[in-house]
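User: quick one, fold this
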Amino acid sequence: MFRQDPAPVPADDLTASLAPFGQSRMLPREAYVDPAVFEWEKRNIFGGWHCVGHAGDLEGVGAQKAVGSGKDGILLVRGEDGRVRAFANVCRHRGHEMLACGTTAKRRGVVCPYHSWSYKLTGELRHAPGFESGDGFQFDTGQFGLTELRLVDWHGYLFVDPSGADIDFERHVAGMEEIVGPYKPEELTVVARHSYELDTNWKVIVENYQECYHCQAIHPELSRISPPTSGENIELPGDWMGGWMSMIDEAQTMSLSGQSGGVAIKGLSQQELRTVMYLVGFPNLLVSLHPDYVMTHLMSPLAVDRTHVECAWAFPKEALEKPDFDPSYAVDFWDLTNRQDWGACESVQRGLSSPHARPGPLAPDEDGVYQFVTRVARAYAGTR
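Assistant:
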């Protein structure tokens, strides 16, 4: 996380959130409902390393996509060398967006729709119409290239540091290679997506993801396949967090029947074939590693009480080669589970909007929530 200014949360209000597990409480109410806190998070938490998409979204030379990111608009471009680069989505002439947020393009260069300034796929200014005919104008195209941002393609997930001042990416993902690597997500193909817009703060979604204390009450389908009290959370040295849960002996994967309609990912260990790993790529990527597919939730905070979530399901090529392959066995299960969660998250947001809401204690089964709450509280306090 890149921190450039103090958070508008009094230090005394964070003391209970940072207390040892078993004595701690949730974040202060203001963390979920105060627009000033949300604006701070956009500048600071989302000003450092965070996920902005998947490399598979940019197929072929010249593929371009504009995404919103904290306080910034980001333009993703695949160059002739196959690399994906990230640029500030700002023309160097008058500041017009190169592409409208959420839209895509595919061409041999990047062109501003306002005055037709054109750039190479690597960001250098190629042509500024009319400047060559201006008498007395001193204009060096080399000084007006697009502003490039730090980007890392990690297992197909695109991470950007808009500030250029956050920690090394290796520290951000410390301890994750041995967990994510065996699933080879960069080799899987996304075959289904669902988009959701929730009336809730982004942190409520992560906190819900980080515990199964609620599963028996609102996820009967999930609880039949994966016992809510199974598994454990793990301690990681970087900015990621999460844990694993096991499946009943008869189950092959997370689906309504517990059976797989696909093919197991090659090279997984026996433990990986019997468990599901749930990970938070702080702050906004949720990665769920299954024996036969990988599911991600990419969160884009829109307002203090509104969040866009894109859920994607990726499968190995061997599954796609099956003539009867249908990803709905995974998609339908998690769409149902998602909607159960979304209803709970939106209810939490409505409750937190009451002036009577106070930070509650964490249950023994909410150590994963504690991981996240303390991470955010340390960010507010400036202690990482």
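User: anything notable?
Assistant: The chain has two domains: 17-26+175-381, 50-165.
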